[in-house]
Amino acid sequence: MEPDKQLDAIRERIDAIDSRLLELISERARCAQEVAEVKLAASQSSDAPPTFYRPEREAQVLRSIQERNPGPLASDYVASIFREIMSSCLALEKPLSVAYLGPEGTYSQAAALKHFGQSAIPVGQSSIHKVFRQVESRECDYGVVPVENSTEGMVGQTLDSFLETPLQITGEIELPVVHHLLGAANTQVDSVKLVLGHEQALAQCRQWLDSHLPDVPRETLASNGAAALRAAGETGVAAIAGDLAAQLHQLTPLANAIQDSSSNTTRFLVLGRERVPPSGHDKTSLLVSARNRPGALLGLLRPFEENGISLTRIDSRPSKTEKWTYVFYIECEGHLADDIMIDVMSQIEEHSIMLKRLGSYPRAPI
Predict the structure, then answer these.
(1) What CATH number is given to the structural domain containing 26?
(2) Is residue 260 situated within a structural domain?
(3) pLDDT per residue as tens digits for the range 83-98
(4) How many helices and strands in the chain, by DSSP H and E?
(5) Nearest to 234 by CA among 244, 245, 222, 226
(6) How many domains does the chain have?
(7) Which distant-in-sequence residues (6+ apart) come within 8 Å of 264 by Cβ?
(8) Fewest CB within 10 A of the end CB: N or C in the chain?
(9) Are 355 and 347 contacting, i.e. CB atoms less than 8 angstroms apart?
(10) Which residues make beta-bridge pairs with 286?
(11) In this structure, is residue 13 part of a structural domain?
């Protein structure tokens, strides 16, 4: 068969598949509408507000999709497609508003869209503290805050905010950080007079900047999104930011992927008001303050070792109540509803003066 005829036949098959896909997606959306109707009816009879978004259910679906993926598409790509389908269907039940560290174009916004999909309503905030307040006051359904970068470490503002909030952690997001040097149209690298970026972004691109723009001043801003916004309106100014900022502010990449580490990743936490049931692959976050005596930290950690629970993170922060006293942020595998975790929490309480359960949540599925 001639190549043109072969291509025509394949395209006809693709058109038929697309039609079937459209029918199935529409059917799924109608099911989502039926779910909403059932939940609303149940809430009216029980006087309890309906729960439309189920983090543990979504994580289970995405993991199942990846496990059953026959290829040739990579499992992460397939899961991302289903994330968007679920996001669009959820919006038919109730669109979710998500507070994030703004302005537009930040990695926090990119993380929020990765987790909740394009149908979520992102609401930018000027500080991490305000992200917490937006969710606490019910102005937004959820919040997304950075907690850790693979090269720069923990985000102190986020850990400190957990000391005072009643919010629960309901999810985590891992976002590869790819920094570009961005400028307005017709800007060239040799015409750059000032480089803007968040403090961590400038630090993560130090080697490239020292090598290619050693004499160009660098200015720290509150976010990469703010840097991109200024670069869009000022001649000779370049910003360090990601793809989303370039797209939103119509900036041109002057140099791509200039971060010092190719494995640079930032982890974000999702804030909510409700506890999340077990998904089967969960993590738990805690804040613990130990008594000021020898071996206090060992007493906090021993129950995890004795019960075979893996710690995924431990960090310390000043307690801000008394000098030279500290609060420990601990992450571990498992869910607070597990029998073994209930026993461990009981043992930890014996060795602590404060134990705050920040929440159990599904491990990042994508």
Answers:
(1) 1.20.59.10
(2) no
(3) 999 999 988 888 899 9
(4) 12, 15
(5) 226
(6) 4
(7) 149, 150, 151, 176, 177, 178, 179, 204
(8) N
(9) no
(10) 330, 357
(11) yes
3-state SS class at 167: coil
Q: Quick check: helix, strand or coil at residue 335?
A: coil
- What radius of gyration, in Å, describes the C-alpha atoms of the chain? 23
Region for 257 from its dihedrals, namely left if φ exceeds 0, alpha if ψ lies in -120 to 50, beta otherwise: left
Say yes or no: 31 and 67 in one domain.
yes
Please report whether residue 277 resides in a domain: no
Phi-psi category of 153—alpha, beta or left, where left has phi over 0 and alpha has psi -120 to 50? Answer: left
Q: Any idea which of 14-18, 149-153, 276-280 has the lowest mean pLDDT?
A: 149-153
CA distance 190 to 211: 13
Residue 236 lies in a domain: yes
pLDDT classification of 366: cutoffs 50, 70, 90? confident
User: Above 90 in pLDDT, residue 285?
Assistant: yes
- 100 and 80 fall within a common domain: no
Residues 60 and 125 in one domain: no
Same domain, 307 and 350: yes
Chain segment 192-238, per-residue pLDDT in tens: 999 999 888 998 999 999 999 999 999 999 888 889 999 998 889 99
Say how far apart CA 129 and CA 322 lie, in whole Å: 22
Residue 164 backbone dihedrals phi, psi, to 5 degrees? -110, -10
d(CA 362, CA 359): 10
* Whole-prediction pTM: 0.88
Omega within 30 of 0 (cis) for the link into 103: yes
The DSSP result for 282-302, as a single string, is EEEEEEEEE-SSTTHHHHHHH
- Confidence category of residue 323, pLDDT binned at 50, 70, 90: low
Q: pLDDT band for position 246 (50/70/90)?
A: very high
Q: What number is the average pLDDT over the span 103-112?
A: 90
Based on the number of CB atoms within 10 Å of its own CB, is 182 exposed (0-12), middle (13-18) or buried (19 or more)?
buried
- Nearest CA to 205 out of 175, 236, 231, 182 is that of 182
Amino acid at 68: R
Question: Residue 70 is part of which domain span?
Answer: 3-92
Check: CB of residue 364 under 8 Å from CB of residue 66: no
